[in-house]
Amino acid sequence: MGTNDSSGAPRIVSAQDVNDQDEATELYCVTSEDRLDGIKREGLWAGSYWSSNSDLADYYEETVGDEGREPVCLVINLNELNEAAIVPDYPGS
Q: CA nearest 73: which of 55, 63, 88, 58?
């Protein structure tokens, strides 16, 4: 699998490919295929859940499938993030 494209946008992979990823450097967000156009247009909502745990991604893949939708997994390479642009949803004290 390649890295994020030159725009910095997350790659979209099938949820089954998540287990092939390097968990130490990548985060996963499982959603349904029917939500991709909205994500591309409006971005991800605050509070979107990202994890480096592929077992958790597998769980969400199954959950999305159980809802009758096609699961996809967004992948972000942590080495390509601009730390200055990241704001936590719940800042620590």
A: 58
